[in-house]
Amino acid sequence: ALRRSLEVSVRRSSRDSAGEESEEEWIEEQIEREESSDSLPDLTLPAQPTSQPISKQLSHGDLIMLEFSPSSQ
User: Fold this and answer.
1) What is the pTM of this model?
2) What DSSP designation does 47 have?
3) Compositionally biased, Basic and acidic residues: which spans (predicted)?
């Protein structure tokens, strides 16, 4: 879907500069783009129960360290 969106954007910019594409073709591309975004699955993360809200766990000024790859120690 991302690739199609990029292709449509490239075509639209080339159409704007060249002025060769008809209005009907542009409308068809818009419809295709809307349909492809409607077919994407819901990407929301499942809620994880916590004993207390995050705002209660952290104090103002607390440092949060995120570790993306564990160190090899």
Assistant:
1) 0.22
2) P
3) 1-18
